[in-house]
Design goal:
By secondary structure, this protein is of the alpha/beta class. The protein has 3 domains: 1-86, Methionine synthase domain (Methyltransferase, Methionine Synthase (B12-binding Domains), Chain A, domain 1, Orthogonal Bundle), CATH 1.10.1240.10; 89-222, Rossmann fold (3-Layer(aba) Sandwich); 230-337. 61% of the residues lie in helices and 7% in strands.
């Protein structure tokens, strides 16, 4: 069996970076013709390339436009592989794959959907940002054997939690996967998913050994794992916190007055992201979620000429504003130390 090589990945990255859709599709299909299983093309070529694209954008080596066109090309590559290599059987059961509400990164879920289809599942892929009530209605109507919930960004964990509980309430077991569920998908377990997987390949193996049906997590009377509602109250103050931070930064950094409308919007977005990730960390009660985001944000801002000290100042300001939220202040202090 032929494997994807380092040279193959380098060439594919070059093609998607140039937006060469036809050439990238031909390249991927040629790999399968030389003996690489389509599953491996997805998992060992497309998936790592997408991770590399994210790194290039974070380091300001690729623009948002280049990242978007490359992702679109990869979507077309996965679609072409799916059309060319159709599964021979679908006897494992019915699997619904959906991204949680507000989750627009659909490619990871699509890759998983096709890989499991090739592994013998009858897959219903619902796409990006499926509203929770609509997903639950679909599950009640079609009664699949299992639902796979995809989450790529931790700020959507609360939405994922609602879906997990509702699906289990309908008697359908849940597999949680995606980078949004954290290292080894541990936040998926924290939210009560029946099974978790850190990658599409791992998810396939989980499904192969999972004796369905098996729903043992759901209990409508159980207490929430969240010890308080700090994350809810702080989320409601997001706009207020961002406004206070913008005023404070304007006083400390006079250059902010000369920002264009686009620059101000980007700054406000980053300030809001700090609040959203703080709320997510409070929701699952895991400081690492917040500190990991801040380390990533420092790289992103640093490569764009924004002084890292500005993040420290914002964390200090948020701590002052949130003086009556002890868990949030502890998270912010950990963020400053990191």
């Amino acid at each position: 069996m032929t494997a994807v090589s380092t040279a193959d990945r380098a060439r594919y990255l070059e093609l998607v970076g140039d937006g060469a859709q036809a050439a990238a599709v031909d390249f991927a299909l040629a790999l399968t013709e030389r003996g690489v299983p389509p599953r491996d093309v997805v998992l060992d070529l497309v998936a790592p390339t997408q991770a590399r694209i994210g790194e290039l954008w974070a380091r300001n080596e690729w623009s948002v436009a280049q990242e978007h066109v490359a992702t679109h090309v990869s979507e077309q590559v996965v679609a072409a592989l799916a059309a060319r290599h159709r599964p021979q059987h679908s006897g494992r059961g019915v699997l619904v794959v959906a991204c949680v509400d507000g989750e627009w990164h659909a490619l990871p879920a699509r890759m998983f959907a096709e890989v499991t289809r090739w592994d013998g599942w009858d897959v219903r892929f619902l796409g990006a940002s499926v509203p929770g009530p609509h997903l639950i209605s679909y599950l009640h109507r079609h009664g699949p054997d299992v639902v796979a919930v995809s989450c790529s960004v931790p700020t959507r964990l609360a939405a994922a939690h609602r879906v997990i509980e509702a699906a289990q309430g309908a008697g359908i077991p849940v597999l949680a996967g995606g980078r949004g569920f954290g290292p080894a998908a541990r936040w998926g377990l924290r939210l009560g998913a029946d099974r978790v997987a850190a990658s599409a390949g791992e998810a396939v193996e989980v499904l192969r050994t999972w004796l369905l049906p098996a729903v043992g997590q759901y209990d409508p009377l159980r207490e929430s794992f969240v010890s308080d509602d700090e994350h809810v109250l702080i989320a409601k103050r997001n706009t207020q916190l961002v406004a206070a931070a913008m005023d404070d930064l304007a006083q400390r950094f006079p250059a902010l007055a000369g920002y264009s409308a686009h620059q101000r919007e980007a700054t406000e977005y980053d300030l809001g992201q700090i609040v959203e990730f703080l709320c997510a960390a409070l929701f699952v009660d895991d400081t690492e979620l917040f500190t990991t985001f801040l380390q990533w944000l420092r790289v992103v801002l640093g490569t764009r000429g924004v002084p890292p000290s500005s993040v420290d100042l914002v964390l200090d300001l948020y701590a002052q504003q949130l003086y009556d939220f002890p868990r949030a202040r502890a998270q912010l202090a950990a963020g400053r130390r990191s």
